Amino acid sequence: MPAIHDFATWEPLLTLLGAEHPDRLVADTGHVAGSISSTGWSLPLSHRLPPRGQSIVPHDQQAVTRAAAPVQRALAEAGIREVLFAADVSPNGQTVLHVFGTSPAVESASGFQSPSPGTLVLVDGVVAEPWRRLPEPVPGAVVAPSSDPALLERTLRERLPDAVGATEEEIAAAEERLGVTLTEELKALYRATRVGPAGPDGSGDWEADFAELQAAESAVGCELASLDGLFVADASRRPCPWQYAATEAVVTPSDAAVQGLVGSPGWIAFGSNGGDTFAIDLTPGPRGHLGQVILIDHEQSIGAELYGESLTELVLNLFESSDRASRQTQRLPVTARVGDGHDLVDVASAVHPDLEVVRIFRRSGTPLSLAPIAGLPRVRTLTAHPGTLADPMEITGLTGLEYLALGPDEWRVLLDAGAVPRGLFAACVEVRGDEHPLAVVDVANDLLALWDRPLIAHTTVTGHIGHSGLSDS
Questions:
Q1: In this predicted structure, which of 99-103, 179-183, 302-306, 383-387 has the lowest mean pLDDT?
Q2: CA distances (Å), 293 to each of 133, 346, 358, 383, in order?
């Protein structure tokens, strides 16, 4: 039996948690749950209330580290990334431990959000709709008046008199590798400096190459990629977990210079500012120019900013653009956030033919009806906090859903009625935080089974933790 399924492996950790939650564990429905990986954990450990007059102090981290160490070693030995667990403890210390493994069909965004196992990927290889969105054609797009490849090349040669430029054959090879035709401005740039090893096998003088890179950065105004380092900044370059990607939306206003995409086959990345990426845009927005320079923010998962209308303009001014467009924020009517402290107080206020994403958060008052948005043609994502829906069966009126996140009880209504939308690509079991993971995983496995996906493994281990652990204060 693997050590991860040996009660002795878990006993120090469970004893620690028993001391932290003595009242919860001995209750009829009490349990304690968490998650642990070979490198970290998410455990229900709180700050303890000190005697009057003393400061609040955190839990003893060394004690937690010692208690978690046997489990972490067992995970590493078994080659398991992380597990979700729950323990039911009787007043005499008799314990039933539930250990839930991972599944290749379950995507954990940033570690387990106990007691939820993560997002269920029901169709392998499919990404959320914004990540599938391709750019809209803009037939009338032309290069900016400031674009002047000859002036650009001449300026760079003056700034970099000793630089070695790329040959036409090397430029053609880069175009073949990328599958796109480089703009005349990009060709002019790399004719002035290849910014990389000159040897046919990629070898070269490292110090000389680094010096050339620094010189090119000073001459151009940004950290410049080598010709071999050019890449297409398409959507695959901006991966995002389903639970977040599904709530994003692509919006391109009619007066936008840049299309609000995740990525594009026409975004050719050529440089950076140390974190964000500069790209030449071959698929501009309705008011943009072919070959304009955009900035792709590494802290954002969607969209890009206009940085300058041409590479010539920016290089001549060392990338000091005064016309940077502010990022378009996602607003109604494409996405709707309903609940206390959010944009809307009810679902009816979200109704619009362009509505794509509806997120219902915790709210006071009576549960909400989904009837107002039934039949809307573009609704693809619905997330609803447990207890916020008046009738989960109204979900059947949303015929275009590809992502659905509901509480365990709401999912159970759909499962029992055979009404789970079969067009879903991914799903999530939303939790309040007090649900027993066993019930949550049971719902998750029932959903995975509908799509014949690998289930979440469940192992039960029994044992006993010392009474002293339960009685500590």
A1: 99-103
A2: 21, 41, 34, 36
